[in-house]
Amino acid sequence: MATIGDVAKAAGVSRSTASYALSGNRSISEAVRLRVLAAVEELGYTPNAGARALATSRTKTIALLGRFLDDEFAPAMLQYILGVSETARKKGYDTLLVSDENGVAALKRLSSSRMVDGFVLLNVAERDDRLPLLRDIRQPGALVGLPGDPDGVDVFDLDFVASGRAMVDALYDAGHRELVLVSQPEHVVARGGAYVWRLANGARDRADELGVTLHRYHAHSSQPGIGRDLADYLDRHPRATGLLLNNEAAAAALPSVLAARGMSAPEDISVIGRYSDAFARTFSLPFSAIDSAADELGARAVQQLVSRIEGDPDAAKPHTVELIQPRIDDRGSIAAPSPARMGATH
User: Fold this and answer.
1) Where residue 25 sits, what CATH number does that domain have?
2) How far from each other are the two terminal CA atoms of the chain, in whole angstroms?
3) How many domains does the chain have?
4) Which residues 6+ apart lie within 8 Å of 294 measured at CB?
5) How far apart are CA 288 and CA 306, in angstroms?
6) Helix %, strand %, coil % for the chain, to 5?
7) Is 216 in contact with 204 (CB distance < 8 Å)?
8) pLDDT digits (tens, 9 = 90+) for 231-275
9) Within 10 Å of residue 264's Cβ, how many Cβ atoms?
10) Whole domain around residue 71: which residue ranges?
11) Which pLDDT band holds residue 314 (cuts at 50, 70, 90)?
């Protein structure tokens, strides 16, 4: 395995000059820097992470604290993880994925060992028990998800209240007056998943303002339960002409549920969901949706975190809360209400 000494010899410079050329800690001529980089490429040299940390006080590693929870749809979580890891890679940082159920213990362990330069937190709860420690440790942190008290950390999230309102508006504008909202299971809310009730409250308030009937349900997050739930809601509300889905498992299951009933969207019922474009492509979903912006949120969190790690002057600004405004990806699943369904009787 090549060493920094090998790189220096191949480039015809001293070890210290080769090190400075790679770290950027001192001004090195462009010609020398290019010779060092050429030697690195030729020899396949990779800096030792431990030595680099001692020399620069940085590990060039970001810890991503997130969990794959049984009551949430794992493929949806993967989109957020990819958004963080891809942006970190482009910034020159490795990503350490930590799925420890005890997030506080994991945060304390990684911070005290100085294994990472900063933290990105997923699965953020309304009263997240990781936040008091995150505010006190040396390394900076960024959240993908809005807690009840965002003080002292950078926060990036979709505006779920505005998303719920936009979903109702999209169906109302097409002529729909009775809708069904399918949300995540109730225990996701009980655990602190505030995004569920934020979207539901936004949808409820907008429906009330417009005089729209909105039936709200908490459904399963996996098969076969979610399939049974969707069939039950369609049976209970035969005059409902629109479905709002804040449940990725429901979106993935709906095509087969509709096919089994001889229905399709938007001919028989209009549908709008909330998930990422990548998620829609993965499951070949034909439904219009509010883009959950998983990639963008991960990218923004990492960009801000790296700025704070590297001492960018802009990073000295007060901590920020950025809520991305909803954007609807139109896939043609919203149309005027079906006359046959509007005329159905209970």
Assistant:
1) 1.10.260.40
2) 74
3) 3
4) 76, 79, 80, 82, 83, 276, 278, 279
5) 34
6) 45, 15, 35
7) yes
8) 999 999 999 999 999 999 999 999 999 999 999 999 999 999 999
9) 14
10) 61-158+294-325
11) low
CA gap 154, 307 in Å, rounded: 11
Residue 318: inside a domain? yes
Please check whether residues 41 and 128 belong to one and the same domain.
no
Distance CA 250, CA 336 (A): 22
Q: Are residues 333 and 199 in the same domain?
A: yes
- Same domain, residue pair 166 and 154: no
Q: Based on the fold, state whether residues 224 and 334 are members of the same structural domain.
A: yes
Q: In terms of domains, do 211 and 336 share one?
A: yes
Contact 325, 222 (CB under 8 A): no
Q: Which helix (H) or strand (E) is 65 found in, with range?
A: strand 61-65
Same domain, 180 and 266: yes
CATH number, domain containing residue 303: 3.40.50.2300
The reply to whether 55 falls in a domain is: no
Q: What is the distance between the alpha carbons of residues 289 and 328, in angstroms, rounded to a whole number?
A: 5
User: Virtual CA dihedral for 61, 142, 102, 222, nearest 10 degrees?
Assistant: -110
SS3 state at 155: strand
306 — phi, psi (to 5°)? Answer: -65, -35
Contact 218, 184 (CB under 8 A): yes
Q: Quick one: 93 and 179 in the same domain?
A: no
The arithmetic mean of pLDDT across residues 23-48, rounded, is 76
The residues with which 120 forms a beta bridge, in sequence order, are 64, 142
H helix intervals, the chain: 4-11, 15-23, 30-43, 49-56, 74-90, 103-113, 131-136, 160-173, 186-190, 194-210, 225-236, 248-260, 277-282, 294-309, 339-342
Query: Looking at the domain assignment, is residue 315 inside a domain?
Result: yes
Half-sphere exposure of 85 (CA within 13 A, CB side): 13
pTM: 0.81
pLDDT, one tens digit per residue, over 192-225 is 999 999 999 999 999 999 999 999 999 999 999 9
325: left (phi over 0), alpha (psi -120 to 50) or beta: beta
Q: How many CB atoms lie within 10 A of CB 231?
A: 15
Longest dimension (CA), the chain: 86
